[in-house]
Amino acid sequence: MTDSTFDAVAVRSWLQGLQTRIADALGAFDGTPFSTDDWQRAPGGKLRGGGCTRMLEGGQFFERAGIGFSDVAGDALPASASALRPQLAGRGFEAAGVSLVLHPHNPYCPTVHMNVRMLIATKEGEAPVFWFGGGMDLTPYYGYEDDAQHFHRVCRDALQPFGADLYPRFKRWCDDYFFLKHRNEARGIGGIFFDDYAESGFEQSFAMVKSVGDAFLNAYLPIVERRRAQPYGEAQRAFQAYRRGRYVEFNLVFDRGTLFGLQSGGRTESILMSMPPVANWRYDWQPEPGTPEARLHTDFLVPREWV
């Protein structure tokens, strides 16, 4: 969408503040501060610009937690960014966003992903075209109804002021998007996902994205606060690693953010920080019927109306 009033500086400022607020809150929750890695692209590459990666590895609660801010520009949109907008193929672009993935030690605590971003397609002599994308989704290893309901309720409430149709629409989009087609199974219990969004103009679209990003801590922290002390053993850790393998498969095969970063010549360390530190694959393995591991597949990894 073209809009001569859009304020990219305000978006970038909010994104940087969001990264700081989330890193401070999660660091306090873990008891371990996040490290800070400011980076800039080397001259002469596909991309210009830089960003900041906040990382926590081997913490008291988080096995790996990464929160990345990037603000980059390039001469040609990657194929993953123009797939839904072929008329923009070949344009220059600017992209700014915050993306996070949190992997707790405890298998009873879910992995979570959140992303909010703005893209601008540019062409000399023409008005820039902007759009937003993002959302958040939850990937439990052991399913709990109240956790799933809480997460989806916060997502719904964040979108409610901007239209009653947005949550069901973005919820379905999330269910469809975070699906491993080659496995015929979902990555997790979903949440919300949207892309190429600018239909309500800059101010309202940006306000909606801010509402989603600002809701993240309330969506996730209450869940892990009530699960963090739950005892677990090697069997639960082994199942967690098995399910983390599915997470790796999705990110490397289907995830548009990963593909965008790699296709555009992005910073590999920052792009792949979402990967779990420990994962495994088992040949033709299925959990025993009636077990909590089986219940994850039968009761949670299927599309449901949680709220």
TrEMBL record:
Chain residue ranges for the region called Important for dimerization: 247-282
InterPro entries (alphabetical): Coprogen_oxidase_aer (IPR001260), Coprogen_oxidase_aer_sf (IPR036406), Coprogen_oxidase_CS (IPR018375)
Binding locations of substrate: S99, N115, V116, R117, G265, G266, R267
Keywords of this entry: Cytoplasm, Heme biosynthesis, Metal-binding, Oxidoreductase, Porphyrin biosynthesis
Localization per record: Cytoplasm
Pfam families registered for this protein in UniProt: Coprogen_oxidas (PF01218)
Site (Important for dimerization): H182
Record's GO cellular component terms: cytoplasm
Single biological process term from Gene Ontology: protoporphyrinogen IX biosynthetic process
Enzyme active site: H113
Pathway: Porphyrin-containing compound metabolism; protoporphyrin-IX biosynthesis; protoporphyrinogen-IX from coproporphyrinogen-III (O2 route): step 1/1
Essential cofactor(s): a divalent metal cation
Enzyme Commission number, as recorded: 1.3.3.3
SUPFAM superfamilies registered for this protein in UniProt: Coproporphyrinogen III oxidase
Reaction(s) catalysed by this chain's protein: coproporphyrinogen III + O2 + 2 H(+) = protoporphyrinogen IX + 2 CO2 + 2 H2O
Positions that bind a divalent metal cation: H103, H113, H152, H182
GO MF terms, alphabetically ordered: coproporphyrinogen oxidase activity; metal ion binding; protein homodimerization activity
Tree of life domain: Bacteria
Family: Belongs to the aerobic coproporphyrinogen-III oxidase family.
Oligomer status and interactors: Homodimer.
Role played: Involved in the heme biosynthesis. Catalyzes the aerobic oxidative decarboxylation of propionate groups of rings A and B of coproporphyrinogen-III to yield the vinyl groups in protoporphyrinogen-IX.
Protein's UniProt name: Oxygen-dependent coproporphyrinogen-III oxidase
Species assigned in the record: Paraburkholderia humisilvae
Gene designation per UniProt: hemF
